[in-house]
Amino acid sequence: MGDELYVVIQTENMPERKIKMNLKQGDKKVLADVQTAIFVTEEGSDTANILFTATVGQFAKKNKDTITNASNFTDYAIAKITLKSTNEEDNKKYAKALKAAKDKKAKLYIAMDAEPADNDWASVQYEEIFDNRPNLWYYGSGEWFEVNESRLYKKGDKGDVVREINIRLAGFGGNVPSENFTKRTEKTVIQFQEDYMKIDPTGVVSEKELKAIDEFSDKYPISFDQMKCDCGKCTGFGKGKFSSEKQKKTILEKNRKYEYPGIHRSIIYGLKGVLFYLDNTEKSLNYSFNKISSGYRCHIDNEQNDRASTNHMGKALDIHFNKDGKRTRKVSDIEDIRSKIFKKYLGAKFDWKAGQKNIFNLESTKVGAQRLGYG
Ligand SMILES: [Zn+2]
């Protein structure tokens, strides 16, 4: 519910004919009584109705300049509708009914007729597929259109999906992996909508944002092998040592010795965001990702290399970058990436100073001149 969708009807020898439709409840009462129409909102209309219309060929005519194969749609009637009423009471009723439905679904069908109709077509029932009245079609054969609960997330919501949004959009302004949809979440959603989706931002996550987030996640793969520990003795991501220090409130995170069982996904998704910005918005800078030079470093690896820091136990990565396709070691280039990408788009600050928690931090030039460390 709540989604925008196109209803596409293919016709033959019916140019300019107007097709009237409505979306009706199938064989079980959920949104409405069986065989009763539900309210939808048609594109360009301020009021919801049970009836919506499309004219054969109009879509092709209207879109001939923007869609290269518009002429292929000459024999189609296409209606763009939103599965919601303009009356919030109706929407509440639908949402409640879907939530209460056993499988959280409503099965619907479309009844339609072409003008001029010679019947009280709106009273058509789905069994009437065997009826031979002219100008009447509907989706039958025991198959239904399924409508699910609306997946819409906004400020104030909470739960596992929100946590996933917080993690996956960390590269769009930085965020913590909590289950709460906060003002900060809203800001990352807006940045994602503007920069990645290139749409007018709403700060709300609906089905299309969820799809775009999945697409973004798949588009910028990061090799797990590059993140693994080099010690040769652990699993690649430590052995879970010092588990008693995990989340222990009396020890600052930066001093905790716990070997997290992987690299935090917010860090990985932060890097995916960086890859996106380098490849798109800031392509003209001519930087690209080279590799993760240092991923996980467990306690054994620390001993082997005589170091003590615990950042690389799942909380940080060191990265090399290319300039014009070749690895750069120039301090000015790395500085450039720090300020024009990490600071600007991930909201990163420098060197894990006091108070700089719950955001991405970067090693400054004096700590890591030729590579970029962040966590
Ligand atoms: Zn190791």
Structure description:
This protein is of the alpha+beta class. It has 2 domains: 4-148, no CATH class; 220-374, no CATH class. It has helices spanning 58-62, 88-100, 160-168, 183-197, 207-219, 265-279, 299-305, 331-346; strands spanning 4-10, 18-25, 40-42, 48-49, 52-55, 76-82, 105-114, 136-138, 145-148, 287-294, 317-323, 326-327, 349-350, 361-362, 372-374. Strands 2, 5, 7, 8 and 9 form a 5-stranded antiparallel beta sheet that branches. Strands 1-6-3-4 form a 4-stranded antiparallel beta sheet. A hairpin with a 5-residue loop joins strand 3 (40-42) and strand 4 (48-49). Helix 6 (265-279) crosses helix 8 (331-346). The protein is elongated. The relative contact order is 0.09. Bound molecules: zinc ion (ZN). Zinc ion (ZN) binds at residues 229, 231, 233-234, 238, 298, 300-301.
Short description:
The protein has 375 residues and is an alpha+beta fold. It is 25% helix and 19% strand.
Key attributes of the depicted protein:
single chain, 375 residues, alpha+beta, 2 domains, 5-stranded antiparallel β-sheet, 4-stranded antiparallel β-sheet, 8 helices, 15 strands, 19% strand, binds zinc ion
